[in-house]
What does this fold into?
Amino acid sequence: MDDGFIHKIEGGVWSPVFTLPRNEKKVFSRLTQQGIPAYLPLKRHVNVQSVAGNGKSYSYKRVLHVPMFTNYLFVNVTPEVLSELNWDRSVVRVLKTDERQESTLIEELKVIRELESFSEDEEIDVTFGLKKGKRVVFTEGLFRGWSGVILSVEPTGMVYINITSVAASVEVKYPAAWCLVSDDPASADHVETVR
It folds into this structure.
């Protein structure tokens, strides 16, 4: 893909699209076959598989291109495309982007494109700012408004979080995309349930 592909397109807005796990390439392929502008950042990953048999052991190396951001791709969304995405079983939701956010997103996608090229030669690791010990606030789901401390981050895009804002300590597995890092220690005591 050339960098000129990522630009403002009249009638549409570039938006992140959240997919089911391991469905990013399928959704991207479907959209591009229909001529819908979409971008799926990929990174190079070397998969090493060890095999043992007949008293010998050896390894196979296989180079893969995996999504840089698990469960995400970027699509130029028009009302017609939005309708189609809402009917797609592989799409969880389309994150709304306004005109101001779109210009920032376009600039970030250009930087991501450069990182994608860099990953062909060098190993890169993408994290969402979610690291063990960080305090987060849930922005979506059943626990929206609650906070907790990250115990571990999985490569699948899920995090284990210790919720301490209730009288007991509870561990919850939660999507990383629904967590916002909080620097405010007061948010630790803020409990709000929205149903």
Residues 99-118 form the longest helix (20 residues).
